[in-house]
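Methods — Computational structure assignment.
A single polypeptide chain was analysed. Its primary sequence is given first, followed by the predicted tertiary structure written as structure tokens.
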Amino acid sequence: MCIFGALGQWAQGDTAAKVGEYNQSLLNAQAVRRRQVGNIEATQFLRRASQMMGDYWVQFATGGARLDEGSPADVAAKTYDEINYDAQLIRWNAEAEAVELENQGRMARYTGEARQRAGTIAGYGSLLSDSLQMYSMFAPRDSGGSRPSGSSAKKTSSAQFMTGWKFNK
């Protein structure tokens, strides 16, 4: 009777731990994909920006302006800096999202481990509780149906009862 409840609680705890590990692996895989997508997005952004800057230079060159000094060169230099900053920002945001996913994965694993410990403790508690109930059912009683009282009564602790219990009697 008592062993089945304990086994069920232990099994629930083990299942929760496995679910936590599985969820962590899923979230870690999502983090890897998010990093990859962030790098792809940054690369595509840089490619589009490079095409835009090429068009920008062509417009200035066809207008007869010198491209190596003055206002067009300053604007282009500042634009390149902003483009690189934006690409780094795309990568940084992807990394931040990936780290958040990894943190969620760690929390899923920790939660599963905590539930496993709780199941183990509950299982042992169930065994102890049921053992004490069995002891009270089979404890020596006087002729009136109650336990003998006073100093002449033999007192047995639950630990003594459990160590002396033989299932083959």
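Note: The chain has a mean pLDDT of 81.
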